[in-house]
Amino acid sequence: MSSQKRAQQGNDATKPRVAIIGGGIFGATCALILGERFSVTLFERHSDLLMEATRANQYRHHAGYHYPRSPMTIKEIQETAGDFEDFYLRIIDSSAPSYYCIAKDGSLVSPSDFLRVCEQFGLLHDTANPPPEMLNRESVSLCVKTSEKVYNYITLKS
Length: 158
Fold this sequence. Notes:
Shape: elongated
Largest sheet: 3 strands, antiparallel
Structural class: alpha+beta
Radius of gyration: 20 Å
Distance between the termini: 29 Å
Number of helices: 6
Number of domains: 2
Strand content: 15-25%
Order of helices and strands: HEHEHEHEEHEEEH
Number of strands: 8
Helix content: 25-40%
Strand order of the largest sheet: 3-8-4
């Protein structure tokens, strides 16, 4: 082992230690950023990172549409979206169409409430439906096409 390696390891031993639980996009991002100043250990229960919500989330880069019952969450998303997009610029894809639908039965949010929240927070939208093979239109009371972006999961994993 070179002395340079030993010195680097010695310096790492003097860094404050941080533990992060969860290897989703948030935990992995925290580990990358905090790793610049701290000795970070990332704990993930799966054999790989980005295996739960990051993967099962239709790859949405949330803009706020998903949280009409939480104004605070929408504000936080809007305040931090620029930083996220700067950090992950190469994985953000704005070419894919994004839709949000309000179920006709069982939704906790009415179409008018959803549209009111969109207007209140400047969430761009047009009333529109995806192709019929993608949606049973009889099961929804409202469908809007949005400007919400997605992330490229394969590029993110690389």
